[in-house]
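Following up on my earlier thread - several people asked me to post the actual chain instead of describing it. Fair enough. Here it is, all 222 residues.
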Amino acid sequence: MGVTVGGTDAPPSPPSPTTDRVSEGWWLYISSHPELAAQGFPIHTPVDVNCSQKKVAYVRAAASTCLATPSPRLNDAEVQAWRDYLRGRQATAKTWMDTAGADGKGVDAVVYPGLLSDISLNDGGGSLASFGRRDTPSASNGIPTVVFPVGFNNNKQPINIQLLGRAWDDDKLVGMAYAFEEIANAAGHGHVEATTAPPLAPDEFDHGGSAHLSDPPPHQLR
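Reply from S.P.:
Thanks for posting it. Predicted structure:
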């Protein structure tokens, strides 16, 4: 295990394709969910998704873009180019983690803070940041992240950290998080219940199976 991580020694990422991967993800989602119309979602193209009035205003596309022509579907070669690119991003992350650290021995995982503030706005999306949240480069590189509680801050509010790992190391990350939480809980420094909001009652959860259009498109191309 490496001693420290830092510097700008990350290997270069492969060049990115220029086709519209996000729109292709939504095209695939729409074509595989014909029940959307019956559920009250008149969604036929990716532009409809971006402009849906059912999305929170914070991530809804500007009205001026809602008459845009949807991006065309990708052909098989273009889809494969994105698959190859994402695999290259995973390999880049692995190379960096294998050699990171002042001693060059690599690291098992990279630690990130979960929240940077007591106040967190959790409805960011696309190019919109979520205030107080520290997002890792997990999704863009096709590698896993696990988030778990680590006690409380100076204001006695619960805090957490994130571990970022190599592609397909999900089980190892979960094992690390479980081990840490077991030790922290035993020492009285693990999970801490928030004092700023009451627990949710069971009937407050949505069990209707409706589509949530603020969620990202499915990772069909990974």
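The chain is about 30% helix and 10% strand. That should answer part of your original question.
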